[in-house]
Amino acid sequence: MPADDTLKERYESVRARIDEAAARSGRSGSDIILVAVTKYASIDQIRQLIGLGHVDLGESRAQILVQHAAQVEELLERGRELPSTRSKSQPKQVRWHMVGHLQRNKVRKIVDLVRLLHSVDSLRLAEEIQQVAAARRDEPVEVLIQVNVAGERQKHGVAPAATRHLIEQIDTMFNVRVRGLMCMAPEGEDPEAARAKARPVFTRCHELFDDIQTKGVTSDRFNILSMGMSGDYDVAVECGANVVRVGTAIFGVREDVR
Ligand SMILES: *Cc1c(COP(=O)(O)O)cnc(C)c1O
Q1: Segments forming the whole domain that contains residue 23
Q2: Which of 69, 139, 200, 244 is the most exposed place for a label (fewest CB within 10 A)?
Q3: Would the pTM of this model clear 0.85, i.e. be above it?
Q4: Beta strands in the chain, from DSSP E residues, in sequence order
């Protein structure tokens, strides 16, 4: 089987599972944004995925995001100049999502490349974003607050009880706009155990999200809930996610880069 068929099949099967999970939660698959996380992807695979019409790409390391974004931009540029080289479904633009932990000294590098930053987890990071953005852009930087729902020591993220206060503080910054929450499920001993552990965490995060939304602590554009990865994105959709971040289920596992 040619490699691009495999990627296409995996992509379509992820989409189909999202559609089914969305239907189970009374929504449609088109309500859910699938962010394809390029962590283990080759640039060739990213090209193939864009050729299939995919728009939302994510990366967890700032340096690689910069590289991938430049490579993708080159491809899109060529498609715009020579439309005959472009597949019919290829979008004119993609949207990059920074999904991993971000160090303050990397903000400057990526802030103009990303459409949504999923991992704001401290006031200091938000302040750095504000400072960089104020100096060089008109539009605010759109961010999610990463919540450490399960209170895991080794994970980044804000404690659920501190989330609202952090959002209120960030809302005073002109150049940072909080669009919602992001969380990660704890690891499990095996895939089934992990899915079982994920459900209460996602449910708790959805409750927190609803709570903040209904109490109107922030703007009416607080409407993004990013949760779910390859092992549990369908569980996350059932629990109310409207953005999922999927890497290996689309791109496969590359032993050489793990
Ligand atoms: C790597 C990563 C993902 C995707 O993980 P997979 O299990 O490969 O789907 C999603 N979110 C974050 C924050 C990641 O670092």
Answers
A1: 7-250
A2: 139
A3: yes
A4: 33-37, 56-59, 95-98, 114-120, 141-147, 176-183, 224-227, 243-246
